[in-house]
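Minutes, project check-in
Item: structure for the 314-residue chain
Input as provided by the requester:
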Amino acid sequence: MKYLFGPINSRRLGISLGVDLVPFKTCSMDCVYCECGATTDLTIERREYVPTADVISELDSYLGDAPAIDVITFSGSGEPTLHSGIGDVIRFLKEHYPKYRIVVLTNGSLFWMEDVRKAVHDADILVPSLDAATERGVADINRPADGITAERIVEGLIALRREFSGEIRLEVFIVPGMNDSDTEIHALKQACEAIRPDSIQLNTLDRPGTVETVRKASADTIARITEMLHPLPVEVIGKPDYSRDVSPIRGDIDESIIRTLTRRPSTSDDLAKSLDVRTTEVIKILARMIDEGRIEEKVQERGTFYCLRHTEQH
């Protein structure tokens, strides 16, 4: 499978089959916290980055066996709404596999474009980001492509809410020292009141980010921000749920590990559970990959994460 990954145990969505529609790090933003690394193709150009027909063919092949998954999630290592065919893929899934909920994880930067709003109209759940509602906050945290401003992002999300009948879960990633001040949170609250999402999900660093100085927000900071956003519907994102079994896309285990690490740094336990492989086997493979110079280790609060080296990603 070239365009599908997982299924994985998502912290937010349950057992999720991923769909990746753009080449590695093709994105409209270069967020300082991105777990996939620095953006190499910073753009707002919408086009058919990968063949739409091939993506549909892979989905048809995999879903034909009626796998036990909760959602099909458009995400991956770039911004999925940049792909001009995302609407066609969503419509195919709704017509042929309606039992699965369709989720789009997006940085939320392109909804000021009417064609982007129309493309995701048939999805069940949209999870757009809004990390800041000030121009300075967006510039510092998201480092967007030319043409994207805080005003456009917020106006696009307001228009999306008017037109989209499904669930909107607005994600706010807290970066200490960048968007946790009273001024930033006040502006964010005003924007959220205008957007009217079904929920606001507060998130903070779990895996290594692009900029090494970015750190995790403290529990006290998250509690303060939650209180400042009251009475808006805020929830704090927790850790992955590994209580349910998954049936991963099978293939060479080395390739499966590399494909997973391309999209997100992971611990050995993350990999073992998401790929349904014994932890001892995963640890041996990771040690070999480190010796081969393919991956590297980064220590975070939750444990040791494994990431691709830059040369392996390209």
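Outcome recorded: Confidence is low (pLDDT under 50) at residues 241-245.
No further action items on this chain.
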